[in-house]
Design goal:
63% of the residues lie in helices and 0% in strands. The protein has 594 residues and is an all-alpha fold. Among the domains are: 2-28; 52-316, Serine Threonine Protein Phosphatase 5, Tetratricopeptide repeat. It starts with a helix and ends in a 5-residue tail after the last helix.
Length: 594
């Protein structure tokens, strides 16, 4: 019995060995046959419309011989180029063959594609494209910009019927490059402001293709953000929220919300901001759960600080304040362009009340200041209703507690009456608040220019809140030496630009910084002839006398030396006539005498 089992086992092993050798021999035969049919890539001609069929057959055989065919048709997933050096070399070889054999007019559509399957799909779509009967006249037309004039024209003209007909008849049309610049049909639709077509294409496209970039490294979401197209942005984000964190090399590694902020698209920024913040926090939470990755943390911080400075330069101070409150440690951190949030804010003089116009006719100036003082950016009917409801609920709860305790004394009755009076007062106050809100909205809608004044005052208010928050954070820092170095440039910029509020908040929170040689605010006020800022010196008390003995760290100049220097031409020309200009300069020279 044991002998028979051994014989059976040996026979099975022989059979399996013979099967493997047979398969190997068949594989070798196939390989030899392929090699005999296409020995080298030199046997493959340059691709044209006339020889496409034969070119495809020869290329397929060559790719099977080189054992990459399964990757081209998507049967296998390509290995990572970074971790597999052999595969990287093989891929470069195959891509080089494609670029050599596709011809000058076809190469622009395949160069720079991420993987080989996209290259093959692009070629098949281009050369096997099925045109509708209405486009037979133009089917052979190609330009250096696009290989499919009918589809490009239909998208540009907003002809969804023709677009849907062409796309439905051609499986790869949605994900193939339509232009030599690497743009997909969706790129073209958003560029041409064809919102409805773009939304339909987004519904039809696979989600992982929405992140694809053209040859200029721009995603569709970046284009929509630059154009401020909120409908397209919303349609894309609903399909894949991760798109908000993709950076574009063309836009200096900026994410979409940064582009929307740079171009001042409020609706787009308001929609993208909470989603971007949520994605940033989710990435940070995921990194903390896994092993610590300092490079990822650094990249996230770089993106966050750049977003903060971009929001400030774009005058989106509400979002900037919210972001700063979440990441307070970034207040003095420099972004990739060497700006700190404080320095960025110091370059925005028109965002503060001190920049209000002074060179207008008396009548227009009085009218402007009257409307500016009349409008109240804090008026909000929702806050009023919530405050009134909350107050009423508190009073009711107090009354219920008194009833439960059986408090029926005369003192209790008096307290109850006072609370009733308080409720009436709050109700009347709420009505007045509501009336003011309605009156203000009527002014904004009916009075010409009132809306602009309101928006300007709202901007001033939010910028001031952001500035106060920055100084609160700075005042709590321990290392005053590093604060002095980081804040010095921002204070100098603010003084040069005449931002009075900037120096006022410094006096309120960090007056000790005014005495250091790196932050000689009042010396700079004389240098740039900013009399409003220099006037703040009287709020310092005895400290102002000490400032007269402080010198510039570089030049060693005192205040009197600075006053003797020529004034900036833009400040000098604010006074008409040479005589008045000289008189004004003499007044500045007396500033060192207090």
């Amino acid at each position: 019995m044991e002998g028979s089992r051994e014989n059976n086992d040996s026979s099975v092993e022989k059979d399996s060995t013979s099967m493997k050798s047979k398969e190997a021999s068949e594989k070798n035969i196939d390989s030899m046959s392929l090699q005999s049919e296409v020995a080298t890539d030199d046997d493959i001609p340059t691709l044209t419309e006339e020889n496409y069929r034969s070119w495809k057959d020869k290329m397929e055989k060559l790719l099977k011989y080189k054992e990459v065919w399964d990757y081209l048709v998507g049967a296998k997933r390509e290995p990572d180029d970074q971790s597999n050096e052999d595969w990287k070399q093989k891929k470069e070889e195959i891509v080089s063959i494609f670029e050599k054999k596709c011809g000058a007019r076809t190469v622009p559509y395949i160069e720079g594609l991420e993987n080989m399957s996209l290259i093959w799909s692009q070629l098949v779509t281009m050369y096997e494209f099925k045109y509708s009967t209405s486009n037979t006249v133009r089917r052979k037309q190609r330009t250096h910009h696009t290989w499919c004039v009918p589809l490009y024209t239909a998208i540009s003209d907003g002809d969804w019927k023709s677009v849907s007909e062409l796309v439905s008849e051609n499986e790869g049309a949605l994900t193939a490059r339509l232009t030599s610049g690497g743009d997909l049909p969706l790129h073209v639709a958003v560029q041409q402001q064809r919102t409805e077509i773009a939304k339909e294409l987004i519904k039809m496209m696979p989600a992982h293709h929405l992140s694809r970039q053209g040859k200029d490294a721009i995603t569709v979401l970046h284009i929509a953000a630059v154009c401020g197209n909120k409908e397209v942005i919303k349609a894309m984000i609903e399909k894949d929220e991760n798109l908000v964190m993709i950076k574009s090399k063309y836009y200096h590694n900026r994410i979409p919300i940064m582009m929307a902020a740079i171009f001042g698209h409020k609706d787009a920024v308001n929609y993208l901001y909470p989603i971007t913040i949520r994605q940033t926090e989710e990435v940070g939470h995921h990194d903390h759960q896994m092993e610590e990755d300092h490079s990822t943390d650094q990249e996230r911080e770089t993106t966050t600080i750049k977003l903060l400075t971009t929001l400030i330069f774009g005058e989106f101070y509400g979002q900037a304040l919210d972001l700063l409150q979440k990441y307070q440690g970034l207040v003095l951190v420099k972004d990739v362009d060497n700006w700190t949030p404080m320095e960025a804010l110091s370059e925005m003089p028109t965002s503060f009340k001190s920049s209000l116009p002074s060179k207008r006719s008396v009548g227009r100036l009085l009218g402007y200041y009257f409307m500016y003082s009349l409008l109240d950016v804090q008026v909000n009917v929702k806050n009023a209703s919530c405050h009134h409801t909350k107050r009423g609920d508190e009073e009711n709860s107090f009354d219920e507690d008194d009833d439960a305790n059986g408090n029926s004394t005369q003192a209790g009755n008096m307290t109850s009456r006072s609370r009733t009076n308080s409720i009436i007062f709050q109700f009347v106050k709420g009505l007045l608040f509501l009336f003011r809100w309605l009156f203000q909205n009527a002014l904004i809608k009916l009075v010409p220019g009132c809306k602009n004044i309101y928006e300007e005052k709202l901007k001033h208010d939010r910028a001031s809140e952001l500035l106060k928050q920055m100084w609160r954070i700075v005042s709590k820092l321990d290392d005053l030496t590093s604060v002095n170095k980081a804040v010095g440039l921002a204070m100098s910029n603010a003084t040069r630009n005449g931002i009075v509020e900037f120096i006022e908040e410094c006096i309120n929170y960090c007056p000790q910084l005014l005495k250091t040689s790196r932050t000689l605010v009042f010396h700079d006020a004389i240098k740039y002839r900013q009399e409003k800022i220099f006037g703040l010196i009287h709020r310092l008390g005895p400290m102002k006398n000490d400032l007269t003995t402080v010198q510039y760290i570089d030049s060693g100049d005192f205040m009197s030396h600075t006053a003797a220097q020529k004034a900036p031409i833009e400040r000098l020309n604010q006074v008409p006539g040479a005589a008045l200009q000289m008189q004004r300069e003499l007044l500045w020279y007396k500033v060192h005498i207090f």
